[in-house]
C-alpha cells in the first residue's frame, strides 16, 4: 500500500513537472522539443511492453511508427478526412504490419523476429521512395492539417496520450498477462510446459505494442504536419532501444524517463557546439557501462526504498 | 482397467540415429512407474515425444482415449499431462510464487479462479510455502527441484512426468523428495511416470519399471525383477558403469 502511494506520488510529480515545463519556458521551440520527447516516450514504452517483458528484441519498431505516420498522412492528404481519423487509422495499420511480421516469426526460436522487423522497416523505407507518386518519395507528404492550432494544446494532448498509454501498459504488465510475458522471457519451453500458449501471448503483445507505436506515429505526423521516409529509419529504431535501456528495460515507466532525458540531452548540450555528439555518446556509454540495468527505473526503485 | 496413457510403436529418428525405436507401453490411472536406462537410452526423447516438444515419426500416443499426435506442448498440458525438466528451468528474475502462478494461469485451470490461493496451496504442498517471496535466483538447488514439480502441479495434471527429479541432489535430499512424490501419488491420486538412470532411487518408489537401452524397451517389470534382468545388467555393465548405480 505504501509502495503504491509512493508510485502514485512519483507519477503525479512527473506529470506536474511535464505539465508546467512549457508554461515556465514560454518558448515554442522548447515546447516543440518537449512534444517530440513525449512522442518518443510513447514509442519507447510500447517497445518495452513487448520486447522488454518477453525479451524478444525488436530492431524495427520504426515499422509501426512509419505505418502509423504514413496512414495518418494518407487519411489527411488523400482522403481529406479529419486528422483525428489518423490516430485510429495509424494504430490499425501498425497492427496489420505486426501480424504480417509477427505471425510467421514469433513462433520460431532464434533471431528471426528481430531480423524480420529490421528488414521490414528498411523495406518499407525503400518502398516509400519507389512509389514516390503516392508517398512523395524523399520529400514525403507535407502540408498536413494539425490536430490543434495551438502548440501548447498539441503538447498537452501528447502528454495525455503518453500518460494513458503508460498507465494502460503498466497495468497490463502488472497483471497476470505481464507475469506470463516475463515467464516467456525467463524460459519459453518451461512456459509451454506450464500450459501457456506462448505464441498467442507474444503475437497479441506485439499487436498491442504496434497499436501504441502506430498511434504515436500518427501523432508525430500531425505534430510535424508532414511525413518523410525517415519515420521508417533504422536509426529511429535503435534510438528507441537505447532510450529503453537507459530507462530500465521491462519496467515500462522507466523508458518514459529514458526517452525524455535522451530526447532533451542533445538540446541541453547545444552550447558545446560540434562536440555535442561526442559528449552525448560518452554520457551514454558511461550510463550503459556503470548501470547496465538502466538509470531511471533503478533510481526510482532506490528512491522508493523497495526492490 | 483402463489405460490412462497408451503408447504404441513410438519411433523417432535423428538422422541416422534411432533415438526411440518402436516403443509400446501402457500406464494405468493411479499408477506410479519408472523409466530406467543408461545415459543416451532415449528416456528424455521419449518424454519430449509424449509432451509434444518433439514431433514423432511413427506410432501413436493416446491419453484418456484421445490422440496426442501433432498437438503443441501447451495443448498437451491442458489435456492433463504435465512434465518437469531434467535441468531445472525456473523463470529467472521472478519470485517463487510468480513461477508457480504461471502454471495456475494455464487455460485448463485458469477459470477455476483464485490463482493466488491455489499457488500458495501448491507451494505449501511441496514445502516451499515459507519461500514464496524469494527470487528464484536465490533458491538453493534442492528447492529448484521442488519448484519444478510445483509448477507442473499448478496445471492440475492427471499424469505427471518427472524427468530425473533427483538429479544433482545430495544423499540427504533424495529421501524427502521421494517422500513428496509418494505423497502426491497416495494422497492426490496422481499418476506418475519417473525417469531415472539409477535404479536405487526407484526401489521404494515405483511398482513397475520400464527399462530402455538404445531407444528400445528391453524389459518391463517390478524393480526387484528388473535388477536381475540379464538385458538390464548387460546394458549397464556393458558401459562400464557401476551396476545399477548401487555400488
List keywords for this structure.
heterodimer; A: 307 residues; mainly alpha; ABC transporter involved in vitamin B12 uptake, BtuC; two-stranded antiparallel sheet; 14 helices; 2 strands; globular; B: 247 residues; alpha/beta; Rossmann fold; 2 domains; 6-stranded mixed sheet
Overall number of strands of chain B = 10
Strand order of the largest sheet of chain A: 1-2
Please, how many helices of chain A?
14
Largest sheet of chain B: 6 strands, mixed
What CATH first level of the largest domain in chain B would be assigned?
Alpha Beta
Poorly predicted parts of chain B: none
How many helices of chain B? The count is 9
Structural class of chain B: alpha/beta
Number of separate domains of chain B: 2
Q: Encode the helix/strand succession of chain B as letters.
A: EEEHEEHEHHHHEHEEEHH
Amount of helix of chain B: 25-40%
Principal-axes geometry of chain A comes out as globular
**Would you give the CATH topology of chain A?**
ABC transporter involved in vitamin B12 uptake, BtuC
- Our count of domains of chain A comes out at 1
| Secondary-structure class of chain A | mainly alpha
Name the shape of chain B in a single word: globular
Number of strands of chain A: 2
Question: What's the rounded overall pLDDT mean of chain B?
Answer: 91
Question: What would the average pLDDT of chain A be, to the nearest integer?
Answer: 92
